[in-house]
């Protein structure tokens, strides 16, 4: 898929700006604080339904105006779609798909598929498990309605179960309520685990190939879904049963700690390079290469699951890489609509691209660079 046109109105530091994108590589060049990341954020919000850097949606509205909007036209294999998002100064969002107002923002997911990468994504490897679950969740909510629904129902049930564990009802009432929530958690948790395992299976080979390429063949990457209940080859039904038993087994401990100790909300993604767990023991270089490899491999999982190639957003990543890696990365973007931001661009690449100049919330120039 690719984005054809983008229109920003009172979004961050953009008053009113239009861009028509190239199907391939789009490079937004500009000095610091000119509005490059803001532009990627506008695209991101149309795909994922939220900001890539804040939970406070109102921050995306230009200062001192009542409402921001982003509109884009998306071209997919089987037709075009218009996506339009409005954010008011209280942070309330509305979405229109093909001109029709949607009751829920979640209806948006699955139209525009986004893979986003920035130097900050190093945290994907080196921070705690929640970052890696977030990686899987953001990707999979875009790929699967079942996943989206299961995750939201699971989180709701989990919050309620934890609340019960914290409340001093009489023992029998608690037991009865926990019985109900264990069944719910297992029912919604099973597809989450099953789909995450499929995701890991979809990306592991490609991630390993990228990592090997990026490291010049010196490192081998392997990843695995890490969960006490993730024995491979179980059906969703079997995972449900295992989960119910697990919640029952942990109940005493859960009552003591006052929260739910196991389940997909505690699982992780194991990242091993040359036999070493780089979540804890990796060098920065290894962690950076692995994060980039996982992101590039994520593209593959969209292709497998949806039959479409997502749009790739690369925020300021070139400055972090040496020239050989920069070239490898640009090569990797062939056949993928890519929107890349940078302060300068001087790579002798054989990839054609459209270059835009950004200054103070305005796109002031546009040039097409054709290559063989
Ligand atoms: N809601 C907002 N309204 C107006 N300007 C904003 C808003 N949010 C951020 N900005 C401005 O946007 C600029 C940062 O843009 P950004 O896209 O992060 O820059 P960069 O080009 O370095 O990626 C800063 O000058 C900041 O003051
Ligand atoms: Mg930036």
Q: What does this 3D model show about the protein?
A:
There is one protein chain. The chain is α/β, with parallel strands linked by helices and 372 residues long. It has 2 domains: 1-113 and 308-372, 3-Layer(aba) Sandwich (Rossmann fold); 121-307, Up-down Bundle (Glutathione S-transferase Yfyf (Class Pi), Chain A, domain 2), CATH 1.20.1050.90. It contains 10 helices and 15 strands. The strands form 3 sheets. Strands 2-1-4-5-6-7 form a 6-stranded antiparallel sheet, covered by helices on one side. Strand 1 and strand 2 form a beta hairpin. Helix 4 crosses helix 5. The protein is globular, with a radius of gyration of 22 Å. The model has no long low-confidence stretch (mean pLDDT 94). It binds adenosine-5'-diphosphate (ADP) and magnesium ion. The site of adenosine-5'-diphosphate has 14 residues, from helix 1.
Portion of residues within helices: 40-55%
Specify Rg, calculated over alpha carbons: 22 Å
CATH class of the largest domain: Mainly Alpha
Distance between the termini: 23 Å
Helix and strand content put the structural class at alpha/beta
Q: CATH superfamily assignment of the largest domain?
A: RecF/RecN/SMC, N-terminal domain
Please mark out the parts with pLDDT under 50 across 5 or more consecutive residues, or reply none.
none
What's the average pLDDT? 94
User: What is the strand content?
Assistant: 15-25%
Adjacency order of strands in the biggest sheet: 2-1-4-5-6-7
Major beta sheet, specifics?
A: 6 strands, antiparallel
Total count of domains: 2
β-strand number: 15
């Amino acid at each position: 898929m690719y984005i054809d046109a983008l229109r920003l109105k009172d979004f961050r530091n953009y008053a009113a700006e239009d861009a028509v994108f190239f199907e391939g590589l789009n490079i937004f060049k500009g000095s610091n604080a000119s509005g490059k990341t803001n532009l990627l954020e506008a695209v991101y919000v149309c795909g994922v339904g939220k900001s890539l850097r804040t939970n406070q949606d109102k921050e995306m509205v230009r200062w001192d105006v009542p409402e921001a909007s982003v509109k884009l036209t998306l071209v997919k294999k089987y037709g075009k779609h218009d996506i339009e998002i409005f954010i008011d100064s209280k942070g309330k969002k509305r979405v229109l798909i093909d001109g029709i107002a949607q009751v829920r923002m979640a209806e948006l997911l699955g139209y525009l598929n986004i893979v986003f990468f920035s130097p900050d994504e190093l945290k994907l490897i080196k921070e705690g498990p929640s970052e890696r679950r977030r990686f899987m969740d953001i990707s999979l909510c875009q790929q699967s309605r079942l996943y989206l629904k299961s995750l939201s129902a699971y989180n709701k049930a989990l919050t309620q179960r934890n609340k019960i564990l914290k409340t001093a009802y009489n023992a029998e009432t608690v037991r009865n309520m926990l019985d109900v929530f264990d069944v719910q958690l297992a029912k919604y948790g099973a597809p989450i685990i099953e789909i995450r395992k499929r995701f890991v299976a979809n990306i592991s080979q490609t991630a390993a190939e990228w990592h090997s390429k990026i490291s010049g063949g010196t490192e081998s990457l392997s990843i695995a879904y890490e969960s006490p209940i993730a024995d491979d080859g179980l059906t969703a039904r079997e995972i449900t049963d295992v989960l119910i038993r697990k919640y029952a087994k942990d109940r005493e401990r859960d009552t003591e700690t006052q929260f739910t100790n196991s389940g997909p909300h505690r699982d992780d993604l194991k990242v091993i390079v040359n036999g070493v767990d780089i979540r804890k023991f990796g060098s920065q270089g290894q962690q950076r290469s692995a994060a980039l490899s996982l992101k590039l491999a994520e593209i593959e999982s969209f292709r497998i699951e949806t039959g479409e190639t997502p749009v790739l957003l690369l925020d300021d990543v070139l400055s972090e890489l040496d020239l050989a890696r920069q070239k490898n990365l640009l090569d990797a973007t062939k056949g993928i609509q890519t929107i890349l931001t940078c302060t300068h661009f001087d790579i002798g690449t054989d990839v054609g691209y459209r270059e835009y100049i950004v200054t103070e919330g305005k796109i002031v120039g546009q040039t097409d660079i054709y290559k063989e």
